[in-house]
Write a structure and sequence with these properties.
alpha+beta; about 15% strand; Outer membrane efflux proteins (OEP); elongated; 11 helices
Length: about 450
């Protein structure tokens, strides 16, 4: 027991240990998935000015400069002489157009508003995912550290039991079987130690992929931390929240509205369009094909322009049917998103409540396992227990310690996942978990 406490203290409380909040800040500035989501949001926000541009006026300026060489040679020279004329001209034209009635454009502007909402919900979902991924990776490292510490402590305890078995065999108070059993357990613990070290390195690299840093130590949970149940305590409340405000649902709701507007936009392809148009132009020319007299020409035009699609080979009707089918698909995708988030909320809720119950049971089992080990050690010393009984009791104690640590970590991450399923996970929730760590 003393060796176990020394091993846990050495691994869990080194100097300059980083807490969960610091690790999260590192991940927020480094993680590639979150950075990609941030740029995707910036791109999505541009949909609104693009949609607005469709209902605003357009103004274009163009200029030109030409040089025309014209040679004229009559078939009958008696009727006229051959001529050669070089004509140069230059000028500019300014055109203006303001949509008056373009149903497709106004619907596309409405789509842009939902595309922005979709981009914002997608980014918020990425933020929640980052919180969960950081917490999961953080506690995976702690769990691997605990497992390694327990395996090493168990190896030390088995080594002590092996040495005692050898002494007892030498003085004739035990058989060689006790020594062989202890040796087998010691060799097994050595193999488990190697596997635990490898798993710890793997978990550290997984955390490093998110944060870009390799940490010398992480702050562990407080030894007697109390895990709180979900609030509210009723599962259906969490399910209702998930179906209403979970980010996957919000994303799909926006996608459904976009698909609905797309169907209406394609139907509007049959509608006429009305634009106010105006133009102003000025041209200066030295001559023309019809006249050798230089001139300046100024023109101004304004009016209303009507467009009416009559027939385009059936393309408009085909796109209309395609958009209608996509809208029906998006409605089913929305229903699937609601069902999936409801299932995720139920699973996470049960994981939290069952995890808390499991932690309580393992805490009691830990007390019982310690008592069983003490009793078996005493029985072995007085000859009513054999060495294998002590080894089994040691194995049970260390397995219970490991299971208890893992159950605590899993319950905490399940609580975060429950809030994420309901769309209510915030950075403040991570701060609350961080306060449960050792100082």
């Amino acid at each position: 027991m003393r060796a176990f406490l020394l091993a846990v203290t050495f691994l869990a409380l080194p100097a300059a240990a980083q807490d969960l909040q610091q690790v999260y800040r590192d991940a927020k500035s480094y993680d590639a998935q979150y950075a990609a989501a941030r740029h995707a949001l910036q791109a999505g926000l541009e949909k609104l000015p693009q949609g607005r541009a469709l209902i605003l006026p357009t103004l274009n300026l163009s200029g030109n400069a030409t040089n025309t060489r014209t040679e004229t040679e009559p078939h009958n020279s008696a009727l006229g002489a051959a001529t050669l004329r070089d004509a140069r001209s230059y000028g500019y034209s300014l055109s203006f157009s303001q949509p008056i009635y373009r149903k497709q454009n106004s619907l596309q502007y409405d789509q842009a508003e939902f595309q922005v909402k979709q981009a914002e919900a997608t980014f918020a979902q990425a933020g929640q995912d980052l919180v969960v991924r950081v917490a999961q990776a953080y506690f995976d490292v702690l769990a691997a550290q605990d497992t390694l510490a327990l395996v090493q402590a168990q190896k030390i305890a088995i080594g002590e039991q092996l040495a005692q078995a050898r002494r007892n065999f030498e003085v004739g108070t035990a058989t060689i079987t006790d020594t062989h059993e202890a040796q087998a357990r010691f060799d097994l613990s050595s193999a488990q130690e190697i596997a635990a070290q490898s798993d710890l390195e793997t978990k550290k690299r997984a955390l490093q992929q998110i944060t870009g840093k390799e940490y010398a130590a992480l702050k562990p949970l407080r030894p007697q931390v109390k895990l709180s149940p979900p609030n509210p305590l009723r599962m259906q409340t969490w399910v209702d929240l998930a179906e209403k405000q979970a980010y996957p649902v919000q994303i799909q709701e926006s996608a459904t509205e976009i698909a609905n507007l797309e169907a209406r936009r394609n139907s509007a392809g049959h509608y006429p369009t009305v634009d106010f148009v105006a133009s102003y132009g000025w041209t200066s020319q030295t001559a023309s094909q019809l006249s050798a007299v230089p001139s300046n020409v100024t023109s101004g035009v304004f009016g209303v322009q009507l467009g009416l699609p009559i027939y385009q080979g059936g393309a408009i009707s085909s796109r209309e049917r395609e958009a209608a089918a996509n809208y029906e698909k998006s409605k089913q995708d929305l229903e699937n998103a609601r069902r999936s988030t409801a299932l995720s909320a139920r699973q996470s809720y049960l994981a939290v409540t069952n995890g808390i119950a499991q932690v309580g049971a393992l805490e009691q089992a830990l007390v019982s396992s310690q008592s069983a080990l003490d009793s078996n050690k005493l029985g072995y010393e007085v000859g009513v227990r054999i060495n294998i009984d002590v080894l089994n009791a040691q194995q049970q104690l260390f397995s219970t310690r490991r299971d208890l640590a893992v159950a605590r970590y899993n319950t905490i991450t399940s609580h975060l996942k429950l809030k994420a399923a309901a769309g209510s996970l915030r950075e403040e929730d991570l701060e609350e978990v961080n306060r449960a760590l050792d100082r």
